[in-house]
Amino acid sequence: MSTAGKVIKCKAAVIWELKKPFSIVEIEVAPPKAHEVRIKILASGICRSDDHAVSGSQYTKFPAILGHEGVGVVESIGEGVTCVKPGDKVIPLFLPMCGECKNCKHPRGNMCDKHGLGVEAALMADGTSRFTYKGEPIHAFGNTSTFTEYTVLREDAVVKIDAAAPPEKVCLIGCGFSTGYGAAINTAKVEPGSTCAVFGLGGVGLSAVMGCKAAGASRIIAIDINKDKFAKAKELGATECINPNDYKKPIEDVLVEMTNGGVDYSLEVIGRHETLNSALAACHKNYGISVMVGVPPSLSQMTIMPTLLFTGRTWKGSLFGGWKSKVAVPKLVSDFMQKKFTLDPLITHTLPLDKINEGFELLREGKSIRSVLVF
Ligand code: PAD
Ligand code: ZN
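A: This is the predicted complex of the input protein with zinc ion.
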């Protein structure tokens, strides 16, 4: 019997307040309104950005359904939706794309003017939520909310992908893989023969290592305080791995010495002020480019030495790897299907939704790269 037009009761992982565990409860998911799409989630990765929302480092509204790295299948569509139809396999887009605003039309823009990423991404475009628990509204998160059996998305925040793509793998294309890989290729524009440094070897940082390698970098120095990450970094293309705790001097000084003046490209994939500073200072004067990929704490301010920029280094930020989401995601999925890159080494754990708290503990303890929840 069709569920279209009806409220669906399903399981979701709800977080009620800051720094608290998730609880699995039965929620109600309203049907999609005009220009919205309801999807059944098949798989969702756990990304550090979700944990930034739990810890408060990224401001979001509670209670909430987090998760932004998923794959689903369209259950029903609201009035006026033409981009997908029931039965399509899709990826939710935390960085939506209307295709018509100044940013979407700009060749280098990927942050749609119509849909923000802040608290406005915690509700639908009309300012209400499609999720309720015992009649009380639950906030969405990051334009997506994938830690639930069903979610409702704006049509600009969903794109159809190859029906044959394995959900428990290509969910990483919804965030982690695309972000790191694209930051190296699109934002840093790593050149063949260059020297790169990647700070932070989680799912996103390791994808940045893969991007540097694909772009033809000849030296890729991987940096992490957790040496357990080094084997995988080497497997994915790092030529050297270093731990800042093994040195008395600041890591940027170590890198400048190792590379006779600094690296061509550095990517910070942690989201801390100190490492953002180190990554910038590790770049070569005159032409080094440093890319901020890690999400810094909301509304925080940091100090840098202006001479680092004055002497010619470039400091850039990269959201979703600089990709225009609606155009790039289906293409990245098809590249994966054609074996142009692999996602398997990034996926260390596969868990049911009920074990979501375990998945977050693995991330916090540095024991996982990506845990993928399968539904
Ligand atoms: P992760 O926690 O799996 O990886 C972070 C890594 O950094 C871990 O291996 C840590 O051991 C390491 N680390 C922590 N502190 C230090 C330090 N002081 N020096 C060296 N290494 C350190 O996270 P992730 O890979 O899921 O995400 C990484 C960041 O990227 C995080 O801030 C996340 O919010 C951000 C992100 N940004 C975007 C975007 O669009 N820009 C998208 C997705 C994620
Ligand atoms: Zn993410």
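The mean pLDDT is 97. The chain has eleven helices and 17 strands.
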